[in-house]
Amino acid sequence: MSAISHRTALRTCPLCEAVCGLELTLDAQDHVVGVRGDRQDPFSRGFLCPKGASLGHLDADPDRLTRPMIRDRADDSWRTASWQEAFDLVAERIPALVQEYGRGAAALYLGNPNAHTVAGALYVPVLMRALSTRNLYSASTADQMPKQVASGLMFGDPLTVPVPDLDRTDLLLMLGANPLESNGSLCTAPDYPGRLKALRKRGGRLVVVDPRRTRTAKIADEHLFIRPGSDAYLLFGIVHTLFAEDLTDIGVPVDGLDEVRSAATDFTPEVVAARTGVPADTVRRLARELAAAPSAAVYARIGTCTAEFGTLTQWLVDVINALTGNLDRPGGAMFATAAALGIERSRPFRLGRWHTRVRELPEAMGEFPIATLAEEIRTPGEGQIRALITVAGNPVLSAPGGPRLGSALAELEFMVSVDRYLNETTRHADVILPPPRTVQSPHYDFALLQFAVHNYARYSRPAVPLGDAVAEAEILARLALAVSGQQTEPSHDPIAAVDELVIAGTLHKAGLLERREELLGENSTEQRIDMMLRLGPYGEWNSAVTPENAAVHEGLNLQVLLDNPHGIDLGPLRPRLPGVLRTASRRVDLAPPQLLEDVHRLRARLADDAPEILLIGRRQLRSNNSWMHNIPTLVGGSNTCTLHIHPDDVARLGLTDRAVVKSAAGTLTVPLEPTDEIMPGVVSLPHGWGHEANETQSVARTHPGVNANTLTDDSLVDVPSGNAVFNGVPVTVGPA
Ligand SMILES: Nc1nc2c(c(=O)[nH]1)N[C@H]1C(S)=C(S)[C@@H](COP(=O)(O)OP(=O)(O)OC[C@H]3O[C@@H](n4cnc5c(=O)[nH]c(N)nc54)[C@H](O)[C@@H]3O)O[C@H]1N2
Ligand SMILES: Nc1nc2c(c(=O)[nH]1)N[C@H]1C(S)=C(S)[C@@H](COP(=O)(O)OP(=O)(O)OC[C@H]3O[C@@H](n4cnc5c(=O)[nH]c(N)nc54)[C@H](O)[C@@H]3O)O[C@H]1N2
Ligand code: SF4
Ligand SMILES: [Mo]
C-alpha cells in the first residue's frame, strides 16, 4: 500500500461533546487508516483522546450493520432485506396500529448520538411531526433535563443554558463532573484537561466536589467529598451564607431575590454539613471565595443532574452565579452565541402542559420521562404504547430499570430501530435501519455549539461518497413518510422535499423568500445549513450583525466555512443579557414557583435517615455510554465493569473479590475493585455494560460486564424534570 494513494480529510469528531477537529487519513479504498487531532482547528488545536483516535476501528467494525435487517418473530431470526422491503413493512404496520389504537399508540425514543449528527438535528423533527405522538422520549431525561428545566424557568428558554467561561475564570467550583474522563458536557470545550491546567497556571483555582477522588479532582486545588445526592443542600448552604454575610452583588436584572433568601433561611452551613459531609466552615469559605474572586463560575453536571434533586441543584448553581455577580460576565457563567439560527422562542418556557397516562408525570420540552416508558408499554388501557421507533439509542442499557424496559419492548406489537448495531435494545425490533459510516455523513454541531466555552463554527462535508448506503437524513425522511402511510417513489427525493418546506417557511418568515436562489450548497441539506448560518447572529443576512461580529468576518455563510475547513474562531463569549431572556418580565427569575415548591421535598428529606450505602455511576475514558465496547483497542485494562468500593467497606462487610449488590429494583453480582479514591459508604458502577446476551457484537460479548441499570429504579425521578435518578441509589452490599 503506497502512501501516495492516501488522502486526508478534515472532520469534527462526533463521539463526545468536545467537538475536536480531526485530520483523517484515508486509503485508496476509503478506509480510515489514520486519525490525528487537527492542529489548525482554532478551538481544539490538535487535541485528540483515545476514543477519537479509534474512529478508524469503529468505522471498520465488521459487526456494524450495513443492510436493513428484518426479524422473524416466529423463531427470532434475522435476515437482511432491501431498503424498499424494510420501509414497506413500516408503512404497513405503524399506520395500521395508529389507525386501530390512536396517535399515542406509536412512541419515539431518541438516543444520545442524535445530538452529534446533522440527521438528528435537521431530520428527526420531521419524523416527530409525522408521528405527532405525545409519547416522545429521549436520553435527555436520563441526562440533562434538570438543567434545561431550571434554565427554562429562570431564563424563559430551556436552551439558554449558561456555561462556565473556562478560559477566563478565576475560580471554578465543579460538582459531579469528571471532564478528564468525559471530556466535558453541557460545556463544549475541546481539551478540557488542558483548559483546566491553563486555568491553574494563570493563577485560577479549581475546586471539585465529588464522592470520588477522580482524575479531575487530582489536578484540582481542592477536592471535597460529598454524600451522593446531597449537592442541593451544599449549594443552599452557600446561598444561605451569601445572604447571611451580605456577600451578594447582582449585576443582572432579577426577580425573586426575597423568595430565594427566605427559602435558604433554614439551610445553615451546620444543617447542610450534617447531610453532605462537607464541614460548615468549608461551606462558609466557599461562599466567601465565590463572592470575593474577580470572577468565578459554579458548574455542575451528570453526577448532580441524574439525582433525586437534580433540578433544584441546577437552579441553585445559577442562583449562586447570579448572586455573586458572575452570571453573564467574563470569567463567570455565560451564554454562547452559536452561529446557526436556533429555534426562535417567542413565549416563555412552560412545564407540564400534558402528563403521562399512568403516573401522571409532567412533560418537559414536549417529552415524557424515559423512566415512564416501560409502564406506558405495559399498562393496558386507552393510550397504551403498541409500537416504538428508536433512533440512536440503547435504553435497555441506559434507562433506569433497563432490564424491565427490555421485557416491555418484547411485548410491543411492532418496533423499528435506526441504529448501527444489533444490540441489547435493537434485538427487540422488527426492522433495523442502519445509518451510513460516520465519514459518509456531513457534520455540523447544531446542538453542542450552543454550549461552547468559545464561539466557533466548523462544517465538514462527507469525506466518502455514500455508495450503496442510505444517508441517515433519508432514512428519517422516508420513515416519516412510511409512518404516515405514504410510499416513496424511486424518483422522489424525500430529503429535498423536507428541506424545501423548511427553507420556504423560514425565508418567508424572515421576508427573504425572493433570495432562495442565493443559497449555496451541493444539496438541499447544505442549502439549509447555509440559510441557518446566513440568518444566524453572525450571518450575512442577519440585519442585527453587530460591529463586533462584523469584525470577525464579513458576514457568515456556508462558503466561509467551506473556505475554512479547520473551523473559524468567532471570539470569546460575550454578555447576552437581557437579550436572550424569554421570561415574561425579561428579567432572570431567581425564584420560579415550581422550584420553590420542590424545596419542600428537599427540606422534608433532611429528617430522613441516610441509607448506609449509596450507589453512584462513573464514566471511563475509553468508553462511550453503551456502544463502543466492540472496539478491541478500547476495552480491557481500566475499561472494565467493576464496583469501586472503599477498602474499609470491603473489610467491614466481609467481602472478597465479588459482591452481591441489591437495591429496591434489582440484584447484581459484580467484581470488586477496592480503592480509597471513593468515600466509605459509597460504591460506583459504570453504566453501558451488560452485553452477555449480545450475540452479534463479538468483542463486546467477551467483555460483557453487568447492566448497572438493573439496580436503578424507574419509580424514582427528580420531580420537576422527571429525570432519572442514577446517583445516590440506596443499596446493600454483601458477600457473593
Ligand atoms: N469517555 C467517556 N466520555 C463521555 C461519555 C462516556 O460514556 N465516556 N459519555 C458522554 C455523556 S452522554 C455525558 S452526559 C457526559 C457526562 O460528563 P460528566 O458529567 O463529566 O460525567 P462523569 O464523568 O460521569 O462524571 C460525573 C461525576 O459525578 C460524580 N458523582 C456521582 N454522584 C454524585 C453526587 O451525588 N454529587 C456529586 N457532586 N458528584 C457525584 C461521579 O463520581 C463522577 O465523577 O460525558 C460524555 N463523555
Ligand atoms: N446508570 C446510568 N445510566 C445512564 C447514565 C449514567 O451516568 N448512569 N448516563 C445517561 C446518559 S448521560 C446518557 S446520554 C444516556 C445514553 O443513552 P442512549 O442514547 O440510549 O445510549 P447509548 O449507549 O448512547 O446508545 C447509542 C446508540 O446509538 C447507536 N449509534 C451510534 N452512532 C449512531 C449514529 O450515528 N446514528 C444512529 N442512528 N445510531 C447510532 C449505537 O449503536 C447505540 O445503539 O445513558 C444514560 N444512562
Ligand atoms: S475528546 Fe471527544 S470529540 Fe475529542 S477526540 Fe475524544 S471523543 Fe472525539
Ligand atoms: Mo449524556
TrEMBL record:
Sorted UniProt keywords = Iron, Iron-sulfur, Metal-binding, Oxidoreductase
Q: Spell out the PROSITE patterns in the cross-references.
A: 4FE4S_MOW_BIS_MGD
Gene giving rise to this polypeptide? napA_2
List the protein's name. Answer: Nitrate reductase
Q: What is an example of a GO molecular function annotated in this UniProt entry?
A: molybdopterin cofactor binding
Please state the Enzyme Commission number of this protein. Answer: 1.7.99.4
Which residues belong to any copy of the 4Fe-4S Mo/W bis-MGD-type domain? 6-63
Position of the signal peptide? none
Q: Does the keyword Acetylation apply?
A: no
Instruction: Look up the domain of life of the source.
Output: Bacteria
Family per record: Belongs to the prokaryotic molybdopterin-containing oxidoreductase family.
